[in-house]
Amino acid sequence: MNDNIRPNPLDTNGLCLLSLDGGGVRGLSTLYILRDIMLQLSLERGSQTILKPCDVFDLIGGTSTGGLIAIMLGRLEMSIDGCILAYTQLINSVFGEKVNSIPVDWSGNIRPQYDSRKLKAAIENVIEEAGAAPNDLLDDGAHRNCRVFVCTTAKDTLQITRLRSYPVLNEDTLPATICEAALATSAATGYFECATIGNRQFVDGAFGANNPVEEVEEEAADIWCTTNRDIKPLVKCFLSVGTGCPQKMPIDDNMIKFLSKTLVRMATKPESTERRFMARWSNELRRKRIFRFNVDQGLQGVHMTEFEKRSLIESATHDYLHHATQKDRIRECVLNLAGKEGKTDLDFDMTMREHEARAFRIQFLKNTHSGIDPLLAEGSPCWVVPFERNSRFVDRELLGKVKRSLFSHNHPGIIGIFGLGGVGKTQIALELAYQTKEMYPDCTVIWLPAVDMESLTQAYLEISRQLGIGQFDTDKEDVKRIVQKHLSQPQSDRWLMIIDNADDIDMWSDGVPDCTTSGLRSFLPKSDQGTILFTTRSTRVAQYLAPRNMIEIPEMDEQKALKVLRNSLFNKNHLEDDHGARRLLERLTFLPLAIVQAASFINENQTDIASYVRLLDGQGEDAINLLSEEFEDEGRYRSTRNPVATTWLTSFTQIRKTNPLAADCLAFMSCVNAKDIPTCLLPVSEGIEREKAIGVLSSYSFVRTSQAGTRLDMHRLVHLATKNWLRSVDSPQNWQALSLKVVARQFPFADTIHRSDWRAAVPHALQVLLLTPDEVYTADRAHLMHVVGSCHALDGRYREAEKMFLHSGEISERLFGAADCRTLRIRSSLAYTYQAMDHLGKSIKIFEDVLEQHKNVSGLDNQDAVDVMSKLTSSYRLSGNLQGAEELCDKVVRYNLETMGPESQSTLDAIFNMTLIYYAQGRLSDAEKLAQQSLTIMKRLLGLDHPHTISATTSLADIYMESWRLKEAEALYLDGLERGRRVNGPDHPSTTRDLYQLAWLAKLQGRHAEAISLMRECSELNARVLGTDHYQTVQTFQTLESWTTTKNLSVRFRSRFSTMERSAMMLQRRKHYPRVKVLGGLYTVRREPKDNSLVREVVRAVKDMPVSKHVSSDEVTRWKADKKRVDSRKSGHVPQVTAPPCTQ
């Protein structure tokens, strides 16, 4: 591009700042003015919808209610119309009624006139309707195009504090939530209570800055101009909007009026801020870069709380905007804003200085060389760059970071930029080369392609020729040495050497074939006048060549990616499909090379964006073929392949050569999902080898670690490219089969301790199961399906668990036979799942069949058979066969106590089952004793958060409730509900049962509204988890309906007295619990038999437990689980399901 016609970047990318005054209900005037500006700007730009301020302004600052509006427009990214509606509702709610008419109490303390709780509730409602949560941080770490800050005043020091939605270098920002920030900036003195953030208290920001224009100026300097702090040359448009000129009134002599009116008016007075600011910015005002809009007539009599004068505010603002003078000024403001093409980068200060230097150079050339560009002038410094300037290049903040490092006074000798292949390293280096030549015409710029040794050698020969040094018949090593010596001379001029694609570490280290003594690093020149910049995909190379000056190129943000797409498409009409364009960019993960390739395909085939997205979202094979399409790119080497799917093949080959285990991990990860891959699944043994393999993949930016290194995320396009690479080096089917084997062997143990591990592993297990045909029957497939089914059962996803168990059982029976222990364990798991699903007939039949198989093969005197018997007792109990359940469970408990002791999991399950049997029989005393013993053991060995401990807790609560010990029962249910939600998740079926019991407890204690709320929550959860046709769902909805429908007088009267309600319930239960009798509205429990040998045996066994067994627990359980997992793998057996017992 000709320098003479290059536009001033200030006109296209200069700062656009918005300052919003405070003013209570008069803030509506601010919004009406902004709406008029945004509407005209949208028409000027041809937008179909009204633009949002967050899409136009780089920084929005506000104070008091202006700060609240700033949060709504900037942080919540609301539209103008949506903000007007929400703000109107807020002021109606907040200023509708005073709580204190007198501003002081009898002690002389100032009292707030309005309810701060209403203000908080109204703000929370606005936040939630905008799609956020009140507890979300104002600065949540997410990248947003628009920065927002609000002013508040520290109560103790009266110093203005800025609460920001973004970080600022060398500035501490309070970690305030959105709601806290909104309260802190709008808590006007005398109107609301002060706001609290952490241990600090704040009042309305208008106390010291009702017009925050100077605060906006200082904040912009903190962000974009930290050196000289002169922000004026960087500002394109500075818009300040007021809330109407205040009425000039004298100070009241009356103390009450002084405190209620004058003091507040003084605290929120804009003072002379506007006059001071306009005087300092007078030049920018003449250049039409600063605008102040503030209704001057009509709002003087509107008090900041008089929400009923909304009509007057709108009318006065309308008249102001339609005045001829204001029309012209608004038109000027709109034309200024219309020229803004994108958000302003943090290095815009450097961009402007470069522009000024370029303008000075052009003027200098006109005066001295008749306009001859030094790039073309004879005798100019050496310029060896193989590519033309990329006219489609999109500026990135990273380029400014590189330039600051290169052109600082203490510049480093060598800088490395690294990142994923295709992320734009070469294009950044190319733009840097051209910008360097523009800024420093006397600078030599040389480019070395490190694709291979031949390309590098040819580049050295060309450099030596242009520098006029050496002989062309000199051997290759001498050419490198000669260039090095020439550039290293103290008298050499300024130079920049760019080494592109330095990916192969062997070229730079010792032992390179074309270098007789050492690697290429020894040929790099060193000089105070020169700098070396190299690009690489490998972090290892970057660390080797520039360990102290490494700059990583991050993923491109959406706005920059959209600009790359716009610059690359011939037909700009495609961009009218804004939703489709953003979907395309998300699919391509904002990777510049992939975006350029997609645009090339669309241009060449004259298709549209939506069609390309459909192809990309199609079958995996179609997506790989699409990303493998060759395309022309003038900014890339002819010897390299351009398509995204093949651009990483060189890196894959290098990984396979240097670390085969890392290549195996790469192949394995192509067969599972790309995100959240547990490192324990990798086909590498745990230890240093695994760490090395992960390190190699991370060094190429193919994977990123998370959760303290236990999870891996693979780049989506790399995931696709790896599949393509796998087809060229090996059979994908071989790796799919191997991946199934690896996942089956490495899958985390399916218990509650390892819940987070196996939850992350389940999606990957399902993926490898999908990749292998169903008709392939292997032991690994049966084992993996059984384990995945166990995980589903632990999460309460019983239908999915049933499918897994049926399929795995079929495979196991074909491979090993119906009587094999592996098949029997799978069938036992299936029966246990049917028990949880209330399919008790199926459950009992399978359990009895399995028990019969055990009897025929090895007898019943073994642990596997006893475990089946223990689970069968639960099915008997749930089906109503209490006698059979008691007899069978008695044998199980005694056998486990004798063989394994009370601390065994099998013993605990058996005691728990017997507790439930006693409870169902009405033997509450025996049930309570056993429940207390089992709960004691479980707390010691399993911990409070184990599902079995939680089940034992709620079982004891059942007994207390049946004994009418309601307070004790409620405390245990609440504890079990809280722990169950945390451990099992909020949608686990056990949660619905606890909610149901708590609802009845609230009902029986006369808390009817709470009971209805709990029963409604239980009903909705049942419908979502169990389905609307499940009997428990029907039961809870019927109960809810009976509680909420109108009842006759006798029913309502009786329900108000807990004694009468209790009597009626106990009468109904008498036929089910013969040990309970009712006497005159009260009840007693018939005396239990004093001698129960089983209970005494359990109590004695628990009492005789060794002291070491009483030590807490999770470590013990984890050790046992790990040992069981190892033993099961060694024997090839499938582990048992460890789902918590189902209670009714």
TrEMBL record:
GO terms for molecular function: ADP binding; hydrolase activity. Residues 1112-1144 are annotated as: Disordered. Residues 18-217 form the PNPLA domain. Transmembrane segments: none annotated. Pfam families: NB-ARC, Patatin, TPR_10, TPR_12. A motif (GXGXXG) lies at residues 22-27. Keywords: Hydrolase, Lipid degradation, Lipid metabolism. This is PNPLA domain-containing protein. It comes from Penicillium daleae.
